[in-house]
Design a protein that fits this description.
Length: 171
């Protein structure tokens, strides 16, 4: 009986160690970031808790991809809440990490979000700067779906400002 107890304790201990391995922790962070992205779209009340948990765990584990992803998600969350100062803070923190890691796709993704932020603020000039920066990267990476979505964003700005000729170039 005692040997079975020790075996069960040993197995539970091994399972606990497995669940805390760096790979498992990164997976949990990635899952939280995915849940956070999903809840932003659904406008869930628990979204901020999930995003903050993802960020705190990523920081604790020094998992830069997880940190950057959670910061970008927090930027989207706060932009959707019309808290543009916090959105800008989080987007630029995420962008700094992606630039340091030279992750071109994520740089463009973040730049597109920053363009969306400045578009929401009515700053067409800055929005166009970030959109066109993202567009160049998406083109180089042959990311044509993201490229076309960014073209649509640019076309929208030109249309909104009455520049229909340029709008038609991007739509």
């Amino acid at each position: 009986m005692a040997s079975q107890f020790l075996l069960i304790v040993g197995l539970l201990s091994a399972q606990n160690n497995l669940n805390n391995s760096p790979r498992d922790v990164k997976g949990k962070i990635d899952d939280l970031n995915k849940k956070g992205s999903d809840c932003i779209i659904k406008k869930s009340d628990s979204c901020l808790l999930i995003l903050n948990e993802a960020n705190a765990l990523a920081v604790k584990e020094n998992y830069e991809n997880g940190i950057a992803h959670s910061l970008n998600n927090l930027g989207v969350y706060y932009r959707n809440q019309d808290n543009y100062n916090l959105a800008q803070k989080y987007f630029f923190e995420a962008l700094d990490i992606y630039e340091r890691k030279k992750d071109l796709y994520k740089i463009a993704y973040c730049q597109n979000n920053i363009g969306n932020l400045f578009n929401a603020l009515g700053n067409s000039k800055k929005a166009l700067f970030y959109y066109t920066s993202a567009l160049d990267i998406y083109f180089d990476l042959k990311e044509y779906i993201s490229f076309s979505q960014t073209c649509n964003n640019i076309g929208g700005i030109y249309f909104k400002t009455g520049d229909n000729r340029n709008a038609m170039k991007y739509y």
